[in-house]
Design goal:
Elements: E1 2-4, E2 23-29, E3 33-39, E4 50-55, E5 65-70, E6 75-83, E7 98-107, E8 112-117, E9 120-122, E10 130-133, E11 136-139, E12 148-156, E13 159-162, E14 166-168
Antiparallel strand pairs: 1-3, 2-3, 4-5, 6-7, 7-11, 8-9, 8-12, 10-11, 12-13, 12-14
Length: about 170
């Protein structure tokens, strides 16, 4: 909840404007004071943006008072998996190398990223041609056994989210 309270006698706002609000409660208090309370539910898109409260009395020149807060919206990861942009998924053959990119948006930052093939977790194994690096998975020297559905899973303190599956077919 966001509260804005300007209680100076000489600066009682004549109007208070809120954009994208859900609910506003305005109160007149004693001694020419006023209180406005804005309630809203932030979205992921609000993360990092500023919420500003401004009070002004047009009858008093240069009377504006303003305060702002940077929003820190915390949410579980939003995850999208895609095959490397330079690859043609309809023309992958045995012996080829492929890579996948796990695109993650999260606040707070992700503390775990895991890769899966057909629901089974993959581990880094360069000898077997499975290379995990940051937010990418590289499969080297594909065989017909490399075909299947690949996913990634990202976790932070708000929760964990699995990506969309990407199907790898070997011609």
């Amino acid at each position: 909840m966001f509260k804005n309270h300007y209680a100076q006698k000489q600066l009682i706002p004549k109007s208070v404007t809120y954009i994208r609000f859900i609910r506003i409660n305005s109160y007149s208090l004693e001694n020419n004071q006023s209180l406005s309370i804005l309630s809203f539910v932030p979205t992921i898109e609000d993360d990092g943006k500023y919420l500003t409260c401004r009070a002004e009395n047009p009858a008093i020149p240069d009377s504006a008072l303003e305060d702002k807060w940077r929003l820190d919206v915390q949410y579980q990861p939003v995850v999208n998996l895609r095959m490397g942009e330079t690859l043609n998924p309809d023309d992958i053959k045995e012996g080829d190398d492929v890579y996948f990119e796990c695109i993650v948006r999260a606040n707070p930052k992700v503390y775990k990223l895991a890769w899966f093939k057909d629901g089974k977790e993959l581990k880094n194994n360069s000898t077997a041609g499975v290379v995990l690096s940051d937010h990418s998975l590289v499969l080297q020297g594909l065989t017909r056994y490399s075909a299947g559905d690949y996913t990634c899973l990202a976790a932070n303190s708000e929760g964990k989210t699995a990506s969309n599956p990407v199907s790898l077919q070997i011609m």
